[in-house]
Structure formats: C-alpha cells, structure tokens
Specification:
- About 7% of the residues have low confidence.
- Strands 1, 2, 3, 4, 5, 6, 7 and 8 form an eight-stranded mixed beta sheet that branches.
- The chain is of the alpha/beta class.
- It is built from nine helices and ten strands.
- Strand 3, helix 4 and strand 4 form a beta-alpha-beta unit.
- Helix 2 runs parallel beside helix 3.
- It has one domain: Alpha-Beta Complex (2-enoyl-CoA Hydratase, Chain A, domain 1).
- The radius of gyration is 23 Å and the shape is elongated.
C-alpha cells in the first residue's frame, strides 16, 4: 500500500517503468588511424563509448549493433577483447545485432556477443585473411622510371609494388596469413562452441546471408534490436543509444577533441587526402560482399 502510494508521489520522469538497455553502434571499415573528416572503426574510436555503455549499473545487458565489412585483424580483435573484458568486469550480457554485414573482422567483433541476431538479408562470415596490393613494374618501365632501393637487411623491401614479385616473399606472406587465420578460427570456435555446424566451408572465407548463417551456427536468431530486446526484457524496455561526444560544427569525436586543434590549412588538406584513401579502402571492402 505504502509502496504504491510512494510511486504515485514520485514525478513520472523519475519513476522506474522498465529496463533501459544501452546500445552501441559499431559501423564502418575497421582500420587504425582515422580523422575528424573520415572516422574509422578501431579501439581508439570506440573504447570510450563502450566504457560508458557498460558503466550503466542498472542495465542488465549492453546491445552492440555491428555493421562492418571487416578490415584490420588487430583492431578487430582489440575491440572484441575490450567488449568481453567489460562484460566480465561489469557482469553484463552482451547482445549483438547485425545490420548489413558482420564479415571478416566485423564478424570477429560480433563474436563478442553472448548471442548474435541478424536480419535475414545480413551478410555474415568471411572467416579468412586477405592481403591486396598493386604491381607497377611495367608502368614505371613505360615512363622511364628506375626504382632505387637501399636497405640494411635482405628482407626490408619484400613485396615492393615497384619490383618484380619473388616466390620466397609470397611464401612468407602466406605463412603470416595462415597464422592470423588460425587466430581468427580459434576465436570463433571459442566463442560459438558447439553451436557451429560441421561444414567444410565454414573457415574458407566464404560468407552467407543471415538465414544460412543461422543454419551454420554463425548466428543465433533472426530479428531486430528493438523487438528482440523487448521480448527478452519486457515490453517496457527502453533503448538508449550511446554516442560519441560532439566536437566543433557537430562532428562526433570519441575523444572529444575539438577541430580547433587541427585548424592549420596543411593539416586540413592532409586529413582530407587521408579521408579519400580511407573511402577507397572502405568501398573496396564493401564491394567484396556485393554491397
């Protein structure tokens, strides 16, 4: 009786009417660096947001929305590990939701979830390692350019795009790729456990739709973030999007650094050029998935 009376006396905005789940969006190609002009998804850009999401003492879980074609294996694993460390430290469940894609490094991050929910048309998987470059040997010959490289150490100029390929250099790259691939495979097996189907193509770099991904055990369910969380925690469940702080001109910055520190024209030009390169790299990653 007294409890219900007390609730009526408390202003509506202070009443606890349901569970609030913090939501963090991790989107884009995964790569180190980035700038105000072209932010990248990496541990530096999302660490603060993740900390804020997991710091909510009243939330039983954190929802992570992933939309990434992949990228740096190191940054992918760092983000994965940070999510798992925070989940264990704060004793919270992690629910991952996939939008367009969680492929390659994006899928590695998704594996940080206690469960993974996807759209039927989401792209998941691509558990593999890829390296790409260009060869300009014939091009520089045509324009009459001679390549001059001086090194201390016989392996300092391996895979130089302006020099002919060497079999031993390619073999060394393959060796590195296999080691990184093994790290990726072990992470997926540890995360997904016996939910994974016995399929020979699972770790070949192939990718699938959300429907097939569920059959293969790469994901757990088909659905969306709002309806899934309401079903799990009740109809009064609220979602709170955790975003980076805004800097000058409304641009978001995980670190909160103002653009005033980058006001020199030369710095702006450098960041703009870097942004164009990042756009090209990201476009290539998305195109690989047909998106």
């Amino acid at each position: 009786m007294l409890k219900s009376l007390f609730k009526k006396l408390v202003p509506a905005k202070f009443r606890k009417t349901g569970v609030t789940i913090p939501v963090v969006k991790l989107s884009g190609a995964i790569m180190s660096g980035g700038s105000q002009f072209r932010p990248a998804l990496n541990i530096a850009s999302c660490a603060t947001i993740l900390e804020r999401a997991f710091d909510d003492k009243n939330a039983p879980a954190v929802a992570i929305v992933v939309n990434s074609p992949g990228g740096s294996p190191v940054q992918s694993r760092l983000i994965y590990q940070r999510i798992r460390d925070l989940a264990e430290e704060k004793k919270k469940k992690v629910h991952v939701f996939v939008e367009d894609a969680a492929a390659s490094g994006g899928y590695m991050i998704a594996c940080a979830g206690d469960d993974i929910t996807v759209d039927p048309s989401s792209i998941v998987g691509s558990i593999g390692v890829v390296s790409s470059s260009f060869g300009f040997v014939d091009a520089i010959k045509k324009v009459g350019v001679k390549r001059r490289v001086y090194t201390a150490g016989q392996n300092k100029s391996v895979l130089d795009p302006f020099m002919p390929e060497k079999k031993e250099d390619i073999a060394r790259l393959k060796e590195l790729q296999l080691e990184i691939h093994d790290v990726f495979i072990n992470l997926v097996k540890e995360s997904r456990g016996d939910r994974l189907a016995d399929n020979k193509d699972l770790f070949t770099g192939m990718f699938w739709t959300g429907i097939k991904g569920k059959e293969l055990g790469l994901v757990d369910a088909i659905g969306d973030v709002r309806s899934t969380l309401k079903q799990r925690y009740g109809e009064k469940t609220k979602l709170e999007l955790i975003e980076a702080k805004k800097g000058l001109f409304g641009r978001r910055s995980a670190s909160g650094v103002s653009l005033l520190s980058q006001s020199a024209a030369s710095d702006i030009a450098a960041h703009a050029t870097e942004g164009l390169v990042s756009v090209a790299e990201e476009r290539a990653l998305w195109s690989r998935l047909g998106l």
